Amino acid sequence: MINPAHLDLFRAVMRHGGMTRAAAALGVGQPHVSRAMAQLEAETGLSLFVRGHGSARPTPEGEAFAREVERSYAGLDHLRHAARQIRELGTGPLRIACQPSLASRLLPRAIRRLAAEHPGARVAVHVPSPDTIWAWAASGQCDLGLARPRSGHAGVTAERFLTVDAVCAVPRRHRLARRPAIAAEDLAGETLIAGGPGLFQEAVEARFAEAGCVPRFPLMAQYTAARCGLVAEGLGLAIVDPVPAGELTGLPIVLRPFRPALSIETLLVRPAGRPPGRLAERLVELLRLERDALVSGRSIAPA
Fold first, then answer.
1. What is the reported pLDDT for 86?
2. Cα(91)–Cα(280) distance, integer angstroms
3. The CATH fold of domain 94-145+152-160+273-298
4. What pLDDT does residue 259 have?
5. HSE of 90 in the Cβ direction (CA atoms, 13 Å)?
6. Distance between CA 67 and CA 54 in Å, rounded?
């Protein structure tokens, strides 16, 4: 069996052009290198060097053997590189499933910071429905999810990430645009734009029921951006998430707090029973930093 230490010394001799130079470069005695090369010749059954007058030149066999050694070490270098890549960047793309409200700004900013720290990182972002995000987290199809609360999903760990209070989107010239806040009863008789079927729209309608109002929802749009676009066209008013609505600065609308307060919660979800990779853990840290920056600038509860 070939001693790996002898191969390391052999490479040094070939690289430095002699045993004396190799010994000096490595900080060891020349006799030590000479003995190791003699042992390597015995281990391989090859005459690797022509010795004479204090020098050692590689034989044709030695040069051929050196080429094979370098091929082997190239494979080892590849394995070391692969191990470092796996350690630092994970086994594949970091898969993130995110609800639309955080997918346009908060998440991209966190990913930008991650890419600056890990230039080789691969990240895949998906923006499916909340139920799909929970299902993907439960089945391990995504590493991280940012989603509205859902029940009935096993195999998922969830933590509160962000809580905001809903706002009312109003055309800039509307009579209610001057109000500091808009209550459910203020919207009696107004044309309203509903959100998609789900917990949020149910909560909105419950607020009207508590106020003794019967809202009119002739229009429906699933996402905040679409509802705000309809508001901008004068087609009605809408109760929306302030985070994506606040990013629509080019629309002729104003946002006013909705009363009674209606909290909108976002959870950070992950597959249960599977330790997160380094990259995923770092992205979570960066997401929290971006969340905190958003909170400090908007008076939003961080969760």
1. 44
2. 11
3. D-Maltodextrin-Binding Protein; domain 2 (3.40.190)
4. 92
5. 18
6. 24
Q: How far apart are CA 84 and CA 214, in angstroms?
A: 62
- SS3 track for 188-228: CCCEEEECCCCHHHHHHHHHHHHCCCCCEEEEECCCHHHHH
Q: Are 121 and 94 in contact (CB under 8 A)?
A: yes
Q: Which fold has domain 167-261?
A: D-Maltodextrin-Binding Protein; domain 2 (3.40.190)
The CA distance from 104 to 106, in Å, is 7
**Residue type at 211 in one-letter notation:** A
106: how many CB neighbours lie within 10 A of its CB?
23
DSSP 33-52: HHHHHHHHHHHHT---EEEE
* Whether the domain at 4-89 and the domain at 94-145+152-160+273-298 fall into the same CATH topology: no
Cis peptide bond N-terminal to 302, omega within 30: no
Tokens of residue 28, six digits: 């060891």
Q: 3.30.70.1560, 3.60.15.10, 3.30.70.20, 1.10.10.10: which CATH number matches 4-89?
A: 1.10.10.10
Residues 168, 187 contacting (CB under 8 angstroms): yes
Query: How many whole angstroms from its chain centre is CA 254?
Result: 33
CB atoms within 10 A of CB 61: 15
Q: Which residues of the chain have pLDDT under 70?
A: 53-55, 75-92, 298-303
Closest CA to 290 of 124, 134, 98, 149: 98
